[in-house]
Amino acid sequence: KHIRMGNLPVDTLRPLDPDTFAADSSAVVDFLAGYYRDVDKYPVRAADLEPGRLRKLLPDAAPEWGEPMERILDDVRRDVLPGLTHWQSPTFFAYFPMNASAAGFAGEMLSVGLNVVPFVWVASPAATELEGVVVDWMARLVGLPDRFVFSGGGGGVLQGSTCEAVVCTLAAARDRALRGIGHEGIVRLVVYASDQTHATFQKGARLVGIPPANFRVIRTTAASGYALTGNAVRAAVEDDEARGLVPLYLCATMGSTGLGAVDPVRELGEVARRHGMWLHVDAAYAGSAAICPEYQGYLDDAELADSVSMNPHKWFLTNMDCCCLWVASPATLTAALSTYPEYLKNVDGPAGGAKAPPAGVDYKDWQISLSRRFRAMKLWFVLRRYGASGMRAYIRRHVAMAEWFERAVSADERFEVVAPRRFSLVCFRLRPPSTDQASDDGGVNRELVAAVNASGRAFMTPFVVDGKFVIRLAVGGAMTEMRHVRDAWELLQRTAEQLLGQR
Ligand SMILES: *Cc1c(COP(=O)(O)O)cnc(C)c1O
Ligand SMILES: *[C@@H]1O[C@H](CO)[C@@H](O)[C@H](O)[C@H]1NC(C)=O
Q1: Do 329 and 230 share a structural domain?
Q2: Do 360 and 405 reside in the same domain of the chain?
Q3: Ligand 2 center to residue 454 CA distance, Å?
Q4: Which has fewest Cβ within 10 Å: 41, 188, 209, 476?
Q5: pLDDT value at position 266?
Q6: Would the CB of 257 count as within 6 Å of ligand 1?
């Protein structure tokens, strides 16, 4: 039984009618404002974890007739929200934050509404040029050397994720190396990472054809704060060279996902240079902190790097998705990624990215896909609305909360901080009771994080290092305030007391 409730008769469907557009869109904005007002009242982790729950609630087939906006939004509220984990909740401390903000949303709304596709310069010149400007602005803000801005011969692009950025730079490095040794040489290419490097790097290496046996994972230890050392990399590289292999690419991390560890970029750059390797710096999360002078040292060390990436969608108030990738040699990147079918020739504009960049850039040649989103708008809105000082204060506020939490944990002898805190991530655990010592299944700490998650009052994720099961508290939500961190600590203490009491 189909009820024709729609206010959109099929024979005169006008999907971009400006009046309907305004009404429907403001209904969504009102819905979201209400959501943000109440988001701290939802259980932060999805309350309803029953698999298949939504499929049972929804009809088997798409509706025959269009339905009114209110009815769809009611279903979102009733059926969808209870199955969501609320990433914008102030008590979300899991993974890393994925920031939303009014400015990020406004910019995203604009770019989605304009819906232009800047794959070649002429396809939307101002969109390409705005992207060139904002990636230069960001490069300056995080303290990157001149070689990564357009006027210094480098340049940046906005992609959807670090994973894509890593694949693109791996392809660039691969093709550069294969030009020297011939395509059959691909089986001799070796890539290097640490045991703390994000898994995305291994996936990227697989995607560009690096033999799995040539993926080196260098062990890190507590002594270096779980950072790579130049010596360890040099030893691995020399070993491979002695066997006739070709060092290709080294991935350094500023702010590793598990522990927030920072690899020494300058030292690694020297090793990479000496052995002809591409050095990439993955600053997905902590790159945002580099806008503060106290953290800038990390990225101005990138003088010897070939590429750097960071995700403003994590800790820089820019709604998903937005990853800045900077390269020192755009020509090496585009040599691996460019295509020139006749239908895309830039007849009215500078061809092939040859002229005064960023004006002459065809961003399709800086990424995997052809079509692309106009991401520059939202990052531009964030930078203009909040300003560099506003953003620095935002970052420092989170770091201060993490510092407070770190001190609280250290002051409670039942707990310990497991790795040095550098930014807004604190890795800690309950000192395991002696009965737990032998087991590395997490014991009481696994129970602790599970109980906290199940309470719906905070959400954290665990990590394992040196056989220790640790709990990560990643501060960085746009709505997170000191009181939320304090509440989380009280919840952890109370829960720990109960668990320890039961043993
Ligand atoms: C989050 C994260 C990634 C993955 O980022 P995507 O944009 O999701 O691909 C990579 N590296 C580090 C250090 C991260 O924290
Ligand atoms: C909560 O804690 C557990 C640890 O038991 C962890 O494995 C998981 O990732 C967290 N999330 C959920 C969905 O419970």
Answers
A1: yes
A2: no
A3: 8
A4: 41
A5: 95
A6: yes
Would you say the C-alpha torsion 261, 267, 273, 276 has a positive or negative sign? negative
Q: Whose CA is nearest to atom 8 of ligand 1?
A: 161
Residues 368 and 414 in one domain: no
Residue segments in the chain with a per-residue pLDDT below the cut of 70: 1-10, 342, 344-359, 434-441
444 and 404 within one domain? yes
| Cβ within 8 Å of residue 500, ≥6 positions away | 414, 430, 433, 444
Domain count, the chain: 3
On whether both 212 and 358 belong to a single domain, the answer is yes
DSSP state of 459: B
Q: The domain containing residue 453 runs over which residues?
A: 387-501
Q: CB of 334 within 8 A of CB of 361?
A: no
282 with 410, same domain: the answer is no
Predicted TM-score (pTM) above 0.90: yes
CATH code, 15: 1.20.1340.10
Q: Which of 167, 285, 427 has most ligand 1 atoms within 8 Å of its beta carbon, as the pocket-test mutant? A: 285
Q: Does 378 fall in a domain? A: no
- Verify whether ligand 1 is closer than 6 Å to residue 162 (CB atom): yes
Buried b (16+ CB within 10 A) or exposed e, 115-130: eeebbbbbbbeebbbb
Q: Which of 108, 459, 199, 161 is nearest to 314 (CA)?
A: 161
| Residues above pLDDT 70, as percent of the chain | 92
Q: Are residues 179 and 311 in the same domain?
A: yes
Other C-beta atoms within 10 Å of 364: how many?
A: 24
pLDDT tens digit string along 76-104? 999 999 999 999 999 999 999 999 999 99
Strands 246-253 and 278-282: parallel
